[in-house]
Specification:
The protein is of the alpha+beta class. It is about 25% helix and about 30% strand. The protein has four helices and 14 strands. It has a five-stranded antiparallel β-sheet. Strand 13 and strand 14 form a beta hairpin. Helix 2 packs antiparallel against helix 4. The N terminus is likely disordered.
Length: about 190
């Protein structure tokens, strides 16, 4: 797939493609895409590659984009809860203030749709229920897997849950939300 941006009167093509299977060569897919683009257009081609995802870097997100991001995550990943063992989703995030203060990351479930306001998340579960302005979020990371532990009834239990970050990435791409996905995480990093 491709999208184009006008830059100084020229068109810049940005490709978003994933290798269909883990063993496939990204170079093969890239070469095909480049040949097709070159044969049809005289354009400057900018590609940024990270584990099969071609993306355009972004340094700012609007409140509407943040809200759309969280809505996509809630619809794909499921309901968030205060404890990881009861939650369908999990993430880690920091704010611009914490980057300059003590480099602190919170971790919790993703916000539920009812927690999303026009300018803020009203309840990030593991942060004591406090609100966070969308514009204060500097970095959010959604791991492919997250662990939880419990000691109910005297027995220690540890388990791992999987999150479908591939589906989240596809839904975010359709929504026009820029992000980065690797084999381990999906993230939005604004610094």
């Amino acid at each position: 797939m491709s999208a184009r941006d006008a830059q100084g009167g020229r068109y810049v093509w940005i490709f978003h493609a994933e290798a269909p299977m883990l063993g496939d060569s990204i170079t093969t897919h890239l070469s095909t895409a480049l040949r097709q683009a070159a044969s049809r257009f005289y354009a400057q081609i900018i590609l940024r590659v990270f584990h099969g995802i071609y993306f355009k870097a972004k340094v700012k997100m609007s409140d509407d984009e943040w809200k759309a991001f969280f809505q996509v995550c809630a619809s794909v990943l499921g309901k968030g809860a205060h404890q990881a063992r009861y939650s369908d989703s999990w993430c880690g995030w920091t704010t611009f203030d914490k980057l300059s203060d003590c480099i602190y990351y919170w971790n919790s479930s993703m916000p539920n749709p009812e927690d999303l306001q026009s300018t803020n998340v009203s309840d990030f579960r593991s942060a004591g229920g406090q609100p966070f302005l969308y514009q204060s979020i500097a970095h959010i990371v959604i791991p492919k897997e997250f662990g939880w532990e419990s000691q109910d009834g005297g027995d220690y239990v540890y388990s791992i849950k999987t999150q479908d970050i591939d589906q989240v990435s596809k839904a975010l791409f359709k929504a026009g939300i820029q992000h980065r996905k690797t084999a381990l995480i999906l993230e939005i990093k604004l610094y």
